[in-house]
Specification:
Helix content: 55-70%
Strand content: under 5%
Order of helices and strands: HHHHHHHHHHHHHHHHHEEHHHH
Radius of gyration: 22 Å
Mean pLDDT: 86
Distance between the termini: 11 Å
Strand order of the largest sheet: 1-2
Low-confidence stretches: 149-165, 169-178
């Protein structure tokens, strides 16, 4: 293990946190005429100072670190980086909102993993600087702290491919290792560009600059943290909701795919299996939910039903978690559809969580292929994805990931049900899947307008840990608990 390079990259994580907290300190100064901001001022100074100190502690012994970065170091940086970010990101909540550590860690992990689950029942009591911190953590987590490092650390070379492939989960069939640095830089600029367009769009819809900025951070990142107790529905603006739908959809789409479309390669969209599945699943879900709402007594007009169904389906599938209506009182069929979308999630290489559409599409094709082979034993036609054959290693890795995902899900359900036995079956199941898939909102006790404050501390720690595991594709955290990972092999 090349510990110096690990420490150097961890130092850069805290460098980003230092800059982010400095921005929040600036917001605190801007609103310093408010009493709550005056009370938070010294806390932000302490947070900025501690972030700088930790950054220096990691950086000083690693100044002459070898640039060699192998898979073990990359996975260690990803896993430890997300955990440390979530732990340190809890500090502002402890100092300013006076939350206990468990609640603060839950909120911080929910931010950096773009989950959007919250333990705050009353957002109106929080200062603007802390609201901005919640939203900024989601914007940072949206593209991934590690991706920022690939942009900055061009000296890593081949090691950048390891970091990028683990963080962005871009399918190996589409991965061009020779141009990885340029690809990540383009994705970074695309993320900035989408954020600016989203900001201007929200501002044009009548939001003030601060609210537009915060909502941009949580929309483009498909994070879902709200600024108001009643959420985005409080603006009562169909235009704003349709704009939000567009940017949630783009956030759940592969950034590599968007770049190809911007370059004029629209034909690739038609033959891309994942994008076709993504659009097809969304269309089916929106159609079913819309028809259910049209017959539902609370929705008198068909266009309102379509708008609400589209918003909620896109929000859930892209793992954003915004809510504009209490879907817990809808027909049971809609809950089943929404739960299905929670499991699937968005596209690979996007800011969304979940199993990812690519894996679901591949698994379905493999299942169909093997069913066909059961009666056509001499069949040699391979399962195709994007017009290319799925080799055995790729197929095996997908099936193992899906199996591991299911095992972690059931383990989480058992743990939460042990420590919160009064929760309903739907509430427990959805709380776990909403955390593991980084959605935030679930069903029943953690449904549309509910929060997670009523859960036990143990359940919050379990769910916070699931958020981190789900955000970085399981392995980068799980390997940290394997003894052989830390051994030296010659």
């Amino acid at each position: 293990m090349n510990y110096p390079i690990v420490f150097k990259l961890l130092a850069m994580i805290f460098g980003i946190l230092f800059i982010s907290m400095s921005m929040c300190f600036g917001v605190c100064l801007w609103y310093s005429d408010l009493i709550v901001e005056q009370e938070a001022l010294h806390s932000w100074i302490a947070c900025v100072a501690v972030a700088f100190l930790i950054c220096a502690i990691f950086y000083m012994p690693s100044r002459k670190a070898s640039p060699k970065l192998f898979r073990r170091e990359a996975m260690c940086i990803i896993g430890a980086g997300w955990i440390l970010s979530s732990v340190f990101g809890a500090l502002p909540f402890v100092l300013i909102s006076e939350s206990n550590f468990v609640d603060a860690f839950f909120e911080s992990a929910s931010g950096f993993t773009t989950t959007g689950a919250s333990v705050f029942a009353d957002l109106s009591s929080l200062p603007n600087s802390l609201i901005f911190w919640r939203c900024l953590t989601q914007w940072i987590g949206g593209l991934g702290v590690v991706v920022f490092f690939v942009v900055v650390l061009s000296f890593i070379g081949a090691g950048a491919r390891i970091l990028y492939s683990n963080e962005a989960t871009v399918d190996s069939l589409e991965h061009d290792s020779g141009r990885i640095k340029n690809s990540v830089i383009k994705i970074f600029y695309l993320y900035i560009g989408l954020s600016l367009i989203c900001l201007l769009s929200f501002f044009a819809c009548g939001m003030d600059f601060f609210n537009a900025l915060c909502h941009t951070c949580t929309t483009v990142s498909t994070g879902g943290f709200e600024l108001r107790n009643s959420g985005i529905a409080s603006y009562n603006s169909p235009v704003l909701e349709w704009i939000t739908i567009v940017f949630m959809f783009l956030g759940g789409t592969s950034f590599v795919l968007i770049l190809r479309a911007l370059s004029g390669n629209f034909s690739y969209l038609k033959r891309n299996t994942e994008f076709r599945f993504y659009c097809g699943i969304l269309f089916f879900a929106i159609l079913v939910v819309s028809l259910s709402l049209i017959d539902f007594q609370n929705f008198s007009s068909w266009h309102n039903s379509i708008r609400i169904a589209t918003f909620q389906c896109v929000s859930i599938m892209t793992t954003t978690g915004f809510v504009i209506d209490n879907y817990d009182v809808w027909l049971p069929l809609t809950s089943i559809i929404l739960f299905m979308l929670m499991v699937i999630g968005g596209c690979s290489g996007s800011t969304s969580g979940g199993l990812k559409v690519f894996r679901v599409a591949a698994a379905l094709k493999l299942v169909y292929h093997n069913i066909e082979k059961s009666f056509r034993t001499k069949l040699v036609r391979p399962a195709l994805l994007n017009g290319k054959a799925l080799n055995e290693n790729t197929a095996l890795s997908i099936l193992i990931f899906v199996s591991l995902y299911a095992l972690i899900f059931f383990a989480g359900v058992i743990l939460v049900s042990l420590f919160d036995s009064e929760m309903s079956f739907a509430g427990t199941m959805s709380a776990v899947i909403a955390s593991l898939s980084n959605i935030g909102v679930g069903l029943a006790e953690v449904g549309a307008y509910a929060d997670y404050s009523h859960l036990s501390d143990v359940s919050k720690l379990v769910l916070g840990f699931l958020m981190i595991i789900g955000r970085i594709e399981l392995y980068a955290v799980l390997v940290l608990f394997v003894p052989s990972f830390w051994r030296s092999f010659r």
